[in-house]
Amino acid sequence: MRCMVQKRELLTALQRVQGVAEKRNTMPILSHILIEAENKGIRILATDLEVGIQGLYPADVAEGGRVALSARKLLEIVRELPVEEIHISSDENHWVTLESGKSRFRITGLSADDFPSFPAPPTDHFFNVNHETLADLIRRTLFAAGENDARYILNGVLFYLKQGEGNQWLLRLVGTDGHRLAIAESAMVLEQPASPDNEVSIIVPKKGILEIRKILEEGEEQRTQLAIRKGQLVLERGTLLLVTRLMEGNYPNYSQVIPKDNHRKALVDRAALQGALRRVSILAREKTNAIRLTIGKGRILLNSNNPEVGEAQEEMEARFPGEEIVTGFNARYLLDALEFYKGEEVSLEFKDALSPCLIREEERNFLCVVMPMRV
Fold first, then answer.
1. How far apart are alpha carbons 114 and 299 in whole angstroms?
2. Contact status, residue 24 vs residue 12, Cβ threshold 8 Å
3. DSSP 3-state assignment of 345?
4. Do the strands 126-129 and 85-90 form a parallel or antiparallel pair, or are they unpaired?
5. The domain at 2-114 falls in which architecture?
6. pLDDT digits (tens, 9 = 90+) for 72-121
7. What CATH topology corresponds to 126-254?
8. Which tens digits make up the pLDDT trace of 128-141?
């Protein structure tokens, strides 16, 4: 393999795959990326057997070839190279030489034949999506998904697609870790059906969602397509292709968690509430981030107490009818939900002191349920 590639192109490629390349040493080849030099440029692939990503980047290729190199080490080297042009060559023993200006690196690789095969992209069943809309739906639900939860299925995000009239489809994303629930949805017009069926429900692992969000947030105006096939979700954007395995199992019946009779609403300034929560949570217990909310006419009183550190209190204005409610919540869960709330005034909906808090933004089809806790 002999080729020349611009530093900015190679750096972009390597930064994209760092989150996919496996950092643990269970299978050394998974901490490597596969570089394939071909007529059109260089193709760079990474996979951890759950998520795979590949991209084609411009390069002057004098001789084709394939080699697997450490994703982390190659990124560290390329980031520090002084000249824009990088010359790459390899020999039969999987050694690779990188030259840039007066810098020269020679690093060992692994056989490309040992790299896991990348699934062939589907030739049909792709449907176009607006990348900004999809990125926004992911941001407003991913925070609520589980993190290494013992209930495996909670470590993913539910994608629900349902066809309405004609080419109208509803895309709904749901995330929950059992302590909070976030739902965001948007209507879309699709030229191609999202599925042969008029309704489809899949569960995408959190790592796959994170990598999809990173690609979507690059902000380039490129056509973004999705395809759902047996056991996989495929994203195609320009020359980038991402494939993630789907999770098997039944997602919880989230509709049962949404309170139906939270008729008592506290209306507060969103920015003021965020500031108060951040300040009071400084002295909350680190493991629980627990704070007490005393909600009454004209005010909300926020308290935290940590015997090892101290206590904090803050009062803010609020509009709230009826008798006073004293309840407790994880401050971080409330802050996470408010981060994606766009309105200047937010409504916190309750039934009583033991009920979940419902945060709803009807204009943007977003709601979040936060379970109470003892304080």
1. 64
2. no
3. strand
4. unpaired
5. Roll (3.10)
6. 999 999 999 999 999 999 998 899 999 999 999 999 999 999 999 987 77
7. DNA Polymerase III; Chain A, domain 2 (3.10.150)
8. 999 999 999 999 99
